[in-house]
Amino acid sequence: MPGPARLARPRSPWVRRLTAVFFVVVLGLLPFLGGGYMLAGALGLVGQRAVFTATSCGVAGTGKNAYVACGGNLVVAHRPLRYATVGTRLRLGRPTSVRVLAGGQVETVGPAAVSGWSAVTLWGLTVLTGGALAVLRGRLRSPFRDTVLRVAGVPGGLTLGALFVYVVVRVAA
């Protein structure tokens, strides 16, 4: 027979705050900053111009981690030809405009990349906005609270819109 039930010790307010900060940073700040940088690459604002020609495409990874990757020749201005991979499906033998970012990562340029990275960036903005509202929830007066909640819905709606555009562009390609 089991012993008497013990009541769970309530968590301190500091533990709850640190947990919330951790999730806002991981789920909000990292996608916002990382997605913003990759979005700038997809728009052609950062990185070096290059031309990628796919020579082969296939499924990389297994199970839930499977994705399509293409390998081929990468030509960057004033550098020798090298082999590279891109994590998206491309037509074989057709030159594609790409950007080589600071870490050596190759990012495609075009509507699919822009809409995808926009969705990631806006998701981060949505989480950051939600985190700020959670912190300020008790400090706002009633008329402002309603306005702020409506404003918080804007990044969420934009995220869904960018995700919809991404799906349409990927299906059409």
Provide the descriptors you would attach to this structure in a database record:
173 residues; alpha+beta; five-stranded antiparallel β-sheet; 3 helices
Helix content: 40-55%
Strand percentage, roughly? 15-25%
Order of strands in the sheet with most strands: 3-2-1-4-5
Let me know the average pLDDT: 82
Number-wise, the strands total 5
Distance between the termini: 64 Å
Q: What's the overall geometry?
A: elongated
What is the count of DSSP helices, taking H or I runs of 4+ residues? 3
Q: Note the main sheet.
A: 5 strands, antiparallel
* Spans where pLDDT lies below 50 across 5 or more residues: none
- CA-atom Rg in angstroms: 22 Å
Structural class based on helices, strands and sheet pairing: alpha+beta
Task: Write the H/E string, N to C.
Answer: HEEEEEHH
Set down the secondary structure blueprint.
Layout: H1 13-42, E1 48-60, E2 67-76, E3 82-86, E4 95-100, E5 106-108, H2 111-136, H3 142-172
Antiparallel strand pairs: 1-2, 1-4, 2-3, 4-5
Short structural description:
This protein is 50% helix and 21% strand.
Question: Would you write up a description of this structure?
Answer:
By secondary structure, the protein is of the alpha+beta class. Helices cover 50% and strands 21% of the residues. The chain has three helices and five strands; from the N terminus they run H-E-E-E-E-E-H-H. The chain has helices spanning 13-42, 111-136, 142-172, and strands spanning 48-60, 67-76, 82-86, 95-100, 106-108. A five-stranded antiparallel beta sheet has the order 3-2-1-4-5, covered by helices on one side. Strand 1 (48-60) and strand 2 (67-76) form a beta hairpin. Helix 1 (13-42) runs antiparallel to helix 2 and helix 2 packs antiparallel against helix 3 (142-172). The longest helix has 31 residues, at 142-172. It starts with 12 loop residues before the first helix and ends with a helix. The model has no long low-confidence stretch (mean pLDDT 82).
